[in-house]
Amino acid sequence: RPLTLGEFGAYEKADMASRVRWTNFVAREAEARNWSWSYWQFDSDFIAYDIDKEEWAAPIKNALLGIKPEIFTVKGPVNPEDLGGSLTHEHIMSNFGAVPLEAGQYDERALFRQVIPYLRKLKSMGVNSIFDCTSAYFGRQPEILKTIADSTGLNIITNTGYYGAANDKYVPEFAIDASAVQIAEAWISEFENGIGDSAIKPGFIKLAFDDGAPSELDVKLFEAGVITHLETDMTLAVHTGNNKEAVEEQLRILNKYNVSLDNWVWVHASQLNDVEYLLKTASGGAWISLDGVKESNVQEYIEILKRFQAEKLLHRVLLSHDGNGFPGGGKIRPFTSVLEHLIPAMRDSGFTSQEVGQIIIHNPKRAFEIKGKK
What we know:
This protein is α/β, with parallel strands linked by helices.
């Protein structure tokens, strides 16, 4: 039901300065989510307090409890409000196809020569943060990412977890026989102590499912990810593509551990040619990553986004390219099409600046903010 500001017990007894601060706070949170509101009453789609679940909405809960969420970058934690325009699924470099090694090996001079100018250009276009999805044994090298972050001024967020797609080629031997708890302990250690010998901490959990019915290893790695999430509050970003069986299995496990879908990103969801299923999953609270944007497929993305707009679900969408700045030492796989082509097309199609900002600026910080152990 609609909720008025006057229903907050402390509000009527507060001094005017406190009233102004409270009103401004709730108004900012509502506007950032594209919720309509008035001074005295919010629309019913803003549920400040869920009577059935007996819990406050996250932004209000954080404010009331004094929780200060953070985003963990390779240079250290930052306030989510400082994230800015974000691309949530890119590869600054990777060794896909190469022999799996825990830490990627690169011709660093060639890498820096190619990647740093490109990312400086990207930052000048309005991107402030990149979530790097190259996992361990897939080419992850956090110290190289830190050098690039220092040189470009970008926030770069790396990950923990293992890439379980590609027929498990990039899953280390240790994980084959280890339990989900033992695997989770290794990932939790990276969050608590840093990756390898560095002090760099991951900011999210990157996992991947193969095509077809999930294997025992797929399930074990995902359970390890959920256990890691419960200990660290890192978000799960899971390469799932058009595999509905993998989606359903992940939803089952999340429910088993009582983890809300707000902590799970369906990576490569745009590969599924079933918008109704995407909308249904988004309406349950999941993050839907539409992350294969190219100049040639912009209109396809516009049509998907229109459906999310019509269902008032743009607040569950993430946009990116799955680009690569140094794919096995090869040419750049671009990640500028969102800015150069998709956003202009969105504006031409009637999307407001507020809706664009919702997806590019607001959603990433909500999807990946870390508030502490569950």
